[in-house]
Amino acid sequence: MPHDDHDHPHALLPPEPALRVKALETILTRKGLIDPAALDEIIDTYQNRIGPQNGARVVAKAWSDPEFRAALLEDATPVVAGLGYYGRQGEHIVVVENTPAQHNMVVCTLCSCYPWPLLGIPPGWYKSDAYRARAVREPRKVLAEFGVTLAEGTSVRVWDSTAEIRYLILPMRPEGTEGLTEDELAALVTRDSMIGTGLPKVPA
Amino acid sequence: MTRVHDMGGRFGDGPVNPEPEDAPVFAEDWHARALAVTLAAGFLGQWNLDISRHARERLSPKDYMRFSYYEKWLAGLTDLLVERGVLSLDDLRGAGEDSPHPLADRKLKAEAVSGALAKGGPADRPSNIAARFAVGQMVVTSRPTSNRLVEGGHTRLPIYAAGAKGRILRLHGAHVLPDSNAHDLGEAPEPIYAVAFPASELWASPEHPDDEVVMDLWQSYLEPA
Question: I need a labelling partner for A159 at 20 to 30 A (CA). Which of A16, A98, B57, B110 fits?
Answer without folding.
Answer: B57
